[in-house]
Every structure is written in structure tokens, then in C-alpha cells.
């Protein structure tokens, strides 16, 4: 597997329609898997006449889908789920019939139905006899698909199954993979950048068995780190104690416990960071003295814990920030949200602050969703609807990229 390929970790739906070039789809699936993609094959019923689902499922490690439901169990295959799962939706080979169905929305099989449900970038690699390829109807359908945003991976000229020569051979699998990689590379908007993310809670020790902490689970920060890595960045994720693990290989996780440890790790990474995103829920106070021994109850009716203020990591980095560095923070508020967020942004010298309010259902700690308003130092305000934390991470990085481009 190649972690250098832009296909690494991507979800690719490989739609196979019924043409002789379907035999090349086995090599194509193999190359996609080798590049690190997760591949889900959908075959039209006629594609199964040309290549067996067993071949494709063996190569991809996933059962092939070709019907709306499994005949013997009645298990329903959701075309919507498949469409949403995909980062890339590739139809190779795309026959004249499948192209026509895609162009006109004739959703009578799992492949076309999933195509109509997907939000992913779609590629088709046409393959057919050259007179079919040259027909006005095919040309019209390809034009329609192109105007619908579908990218056509042009068929090559050569000898065809009919032994006639002309344009109609499916592009070679390696060329199809290159086309996908080229597209994905153009999306690597953070290639060459170092992004620092803090995430999770901090634990401040009271004694060997107790700590002061908070309810942060780290989900938002980990989602931001994954999104930055998917955009090509090298990511340092300084994480407090959480039960998550980072998936993308470009994420270097530095595990810490206390605010002080988080400060040391964040400062070390900040020097070379282009972008820093402070999403950790740092404890504001720590016990003045952590006891080396377990504090005994000793029948006391009260126990007074003296606390000292923790360092403010965001503010420390804000004071050390040099030209060209972009620093973003979070503000989790319960009231007076707008004023509190903007005040924090200014006080800590942040370039941007992401505000979420505990008054919004589905926002805050532990949930898989969040609802944020982003304030930029220039005065811009962007309000977003309730979304998955992965989508919120994309909104945050889109906003950062736009701000950075404006600053340049
Ligand atoms: N932050 C930090 N270090 C701290 C406290 C906060 O880096 N010791 C960062 C958080 O990661 C976040 C931003 O500062 O990006 C705002 O955090 P928040 O807890 O809302 O701010 P506080 O300054 O602690 O304000 P409050 O009085 O609301 O707790």
C-alpha cells in the first residue's frame, strides 16, 4: 500500500457495466487497493456475464453489490449509503447503455441508482465498439454527463473486441488510476503545510488516583486533524487523555495529560507550524500541590483544594506568533456567546475563533455533531447549520484556507 498516493484512505465505488473491458476492472481494482483506497464494487447484472463477482470481491476484500437486495436474506443494499460513502465514484468500463442511463437518470440497477445518490466526484471510462462510440447518441450522452460535472476518462484507439480498429478501448487501468490521483492531488490544498492541533481534555492531578478534568472527548479536534491530513498537511496532534486514535498516517500524535504538558508539546511544534488550531478543552486551574499519596478521607466533613491558574496555551502561542502563522481557537459558551467569543479571539491574538454554544442541541462535548459560528479577526462572521464533526472540520479548514489566502 502506498501512503504517498492521494488515493490512500479514499473510498472508491467502482461501478462495472457489461462490456468485454470488464476483465480490465480486476487489474484496476488491484491498483486502487495497492494505492491504499477502499474499493466497493457495484456490478450491473450484465457485467457479471463478463467477470465474476468472486474475482472482484477477492481483490477488494468486500462483497460485490449488484442487486438492490440479497435474494436469500432479503438484506437491503442502500444506494444512498453507498453514494455518501464514496469519495470517488468511478464507472469503468462505462458502456453506451450505462452512459445513456446515467445521462437520463434511468435508475433501474444498483449502479445507476447509487450514481444518482452520490455527492462524490464521478469519473467514467467509456468502452465500446468504435461505431457505438462515434454515434451521435453516445456523444450527446457524454456531453450531458460532462455538463453534469462528470469527468470522462477518454477511451483509447486500438483493436477492439470486434477486431475492428478505432476509438473505444477502455483507458488502461494505470492511466485511470493516474487520472484519479491527479484529481485528488489538486485537492491537497494543505500539501507541504504543518498543522498543529490540540485536542481533548487535560487532567490535573490531585493525587495518584484523582484529577480535575472535563467532559471533552476530543472528537472535534481529532476530526480537524484527520481533515487537515486528508488535505495533504503534516499534522501534529497534541492530545489529552481520550479514547480515540488517529487514522491518517500523516498525523503524529503527542499524548499528554496536563495543561502544562500540553503547553510544552504545543510550543515545541508551533515553531514550524503554518496553522495551529486549539481545540483542546484545557483545565483552567490545577491543584496547587498534587499529593504524592492518596488523600485520605480521615473523617473530615470538608476538604479544601487550593488551585493555581494553568498556562493559557492559545494565548502563549498567540503572543509568540510570527508573520505567516495562522492561529485558530475554539470557544464553548453557555451565554453571551458572540461577545465572549470575539473577546477571547482578541485577548489571545487569534486569527479566528470557532464558537459553539451549549444552548444548541447537538453541539458541544461527546456528540458526533456540532453547530458552529466562525469569527475571523477581520470581522467576518460565518454561521453554519448542525453537521457531523467531520463536516464541521471541513468548514473550519475551508475558512482557514480562505483567510490564509487573503493574508498572503
Ligand atoms: N485554551 C488554551 N489554554 C487554556 C485555556 C484555553 O489553549 N488554558 C484555548 C482553548 O483550546 C480554546 C480557547 O483557548 O481554543 C478558548 O478556550 P476557553 O476554555 O473557552 O477559554 P478560557 O480562556 O478558558 O475562558 P473561560 O473563562 O470561558 O473558560
What's the SSE blueprint?
Elements: E1 11-16, H1 24-34, E2 38-43, H2 53-60, H3 79-85, E3 88-94, H4 96-104, H5 110-117, E4 121-126, H6 130-134, H7 136-147, E5 151-152, E6 156-159, E7 165-169, H8 173-186, E8 194-199, E9 204-207, E10 210-212, H9 219-230, E11 234-239, E12 251-255, H10 259-270, E13 275-278, E14 285-287, E15 307-309, H11 313-320, E16 326-333, H12 337-347, E17 352-357, E18 369-370, E19 372-376, E20 381-383, E21 387-388, H13 389-407
Parallel strand pairs: 1-2, 1-3, 3-4, 4-5, 8-11, 8-13, 11-12, 13-16, 16-17
Antiparallel strand pairs: 6-7, 9-10, 14-15, 17-19, 18-21, 19-20
Helix pairs in contact: 1-2, 1-8, 3-5, 4-7, 9-13
The structure holds cytidine-5'-triphosphate.
Number of strands: 21
Main pleated sheet: 8 strands, mixed
- Globally, the shape reads elongated
Strand order of the largest sheet: 12-11-8-13-16-17-19-20
Structural class: alpha/beta
Mean pLDDT: 93
Hetero groups: cytidine-5'-triphosphate
**Low-pLDDT regions:** none
Beta-strand content: 15-25%
Estimated helix fraction: 25-40%
Distance between the termini: 36 Å
Backbone CA Rg: 26 Å
Number of helix segments? 13
Question: Characteristics of this structure?
Answer:
alpha/beta, 33% helix, 21 strands, 13 helices, 408 residues, binds cytidine-5'-triphosphate, single chain, five-stranded parallel β-sheet, elongated
